[in-house]
Amino acid sequence: MALTRLEKLTFTLLAIGIVIGGCLIFIKIQANNSKNRAALDDIQKISALTPRNVIEKDVDPPDLGGDDSAKLNINKATLADLDSLEGMGRAFAQRIIDYRKEKGEVKDLNELLTLKGMTKKKYLTLSRFLSVKGGKSGREGGSLKLNLNFASEEEIEKLPGIGKTLAHAIVEIRNQQGTFHSIENLRDVPGLSEEKLNRFVNLISVK
User: Fold this and answer.
1) What CATH number does residue 185 fall under?
2) Parent domain of 173
3) Quick one: pLDDT at residue 138?
4) pLDDT single digits (tens) 41-58
5) How far apart are CA 95 and CA 126, in angstroms?
6) Residue ending a domain, choose from 94, 118, 137
């Protein structure tokens, strides 16, 4: 059956409408894609300008249970006491002594971060052993017992049967373990026999 003129016109207009609609949809899609690409470019530009370094927080002493009684009081410690600590070194121990003389006392361990040569790693190591109040010194309160956790190598060397070599070995083991938790830890010291230990065991403490 032949289409009438009106039907032909209708189909023609419908086809034109479909083509125009398709073109409009295609143009809209392309426009959206362009906007998305532009937005992505902006994000990448902003990202390139944003610092990638992690913001570091102030360093605080590690939490050791809140008990400072077993730590070395930095305001009472002698040069030898400080020098005996792991990671300290005599030069830095002297800086602490000089700082203490200038300021009167160390009120907060964070003050150590202002001293020349102090790094965050060094600070975290030393803060395990130091306190600004309470705590102990090498020979606490005039006690006859020497606290091996804070005693200097020179002080340990004066114990009966302990020479320079053994004193150095004791300090090395102390530094490796962080602290002596009991007298039994001394059995890890190379060259320290049971006989030698018995000669001075009543003259030492670790708490």
Assistant:
1) 1.10.150.320
2) 140-207
3) 53
4) 766 666 555 544 443 444
5) 14
6) 137
Q: For residues 181 and 150, give the distance between their C-alpha atoms in angstroms, rounded to a whole number.
A: 13
The 10s digit of each residue's pLDDT in 71-83 is 788 888 888 778 7
CATH code (residue 93): 1.10.150.280
Residue 59: pLDDT over 60: no
Q: Check residues 169 and 68 and name the one with the higher pLDDT.
A: 169
Q: What is the rounded (10 degree) CA torsion for 12, 17, 18, 20?
A: 120
For the chain, what is the domain count? 2
Query: Residue 20: left if φ>0, alpha if ψ -120 to 50, beta else—which one?
Result: alpha
* Interatomic CA distance for residues 55 and 108, integer angstroms: 23
CB distance 141 to 53 below 8 Å? no
Report the candidate in 123, 115, 152 with the shortest Cα–Cα distance to residue 137. Answer: 152
